[in-house]
Amino acid sequence: MHNCVFFCLLLLTITISMGLVFHTAEAESISLSTNNDTFYLGDYIVAFGSVDTVFEDMPITLQVYYGSALIDVDQVPVASDGTFAARFNADGQQWKEEGTYSIRAFYTANIIAETTFEFYNEVADKSSAIFPVDIPNSGTFDVGYTIRGGEIKDIEMDLDRYALLIQTSMDSSGNIILKLPRESFDAQNDGNDETFIILISKENTSSENFIQAEYEEVGTSSEYRTIRIQLEEDDKWIEVIGTYIIPEFGSVVTIILIAAVASTIIISKSRLSIRYN
Predict the structure, then answer these.
(1) E strand or H helix that includes residue 165
(2) How confident is the model at residue 160 (pLDDT cuts 50, 70, 90)?
(3) Phi–psi pair at 160, nearest 5 degrees
(4) Where in the chain is the domain with CATH 2.60.40.1930?
(5) Residue 252: which residues within 8 A CB-CB, separation 6 or more?
(6) Which pTM was predicted?
(7) Is the distance from CB of 227 to CB of 196 less than 8 angstroms?
(8) Number of neighbours of residue 231 by Cβ within 10 angstroms
(9) Which of 232, 220, 228, 230 is nearest to 273 (CA)?
(10) Architecture of domain 28-120 in this structure
């Protein structure tokens, strides 16, 4: 009798233990992303993701690091569908070093994920240098810029495509901020701002080498539009296509702009990415 009871208890213990092991094994992975790849002083960083299995009343812990230094930490609940999100403000005494930061997510001791982003102290809508762009037979106009990860070699005008062609030398991944003067270069239709078309090439200026890329508009005024473009190592050419260069050269409506670059976009691969705001 005692042996039977002992055997039953032992079997029950093994069954429960195996159930816990399998339950934990089901939650082996966790996804983690941020709403951008690059942030500046004062920006809000949104870290979001999901877990395979939700443990009741168990929050997820997110920690922001610069190297081994802990910058910020937060605990947020996990929704019933396994998703979570936390927001960090990149401001204060802790945010003084520029470079690569990491966010680590912990959901039980064995479920950990990590992602990285770049952080800079500069204000996003200000330029740190000026590049004079030649206007055929008409002087120059200035484009303000800040570039991370490389340098600008040249900026040329393409009047036929209503575009600025920027030659870069990128030693690492980074970004370029362009402060574009509206009176000289813009993308508009009936007085309303339109989206610039951004094409990037790692090879040369042949159209089949360009791929379409996204940009972020970080500053807008009556005189300037300031855009930020993420760049990769070895990117060599950036084409920014608008609807006019210098008003006296004429303007085109958006449908003509789209037709002018349609063939390039169709044959090129896209590196557009989703942004969560």
Answers:
(1) strand 163-181
(2) confident
(3) -70, -30
(4) 28-120
(5) 162, 243, 244, 260
(6) 0.55
(7) yes
(8) 21
(9) 230
(10) Sandwich (2.60)
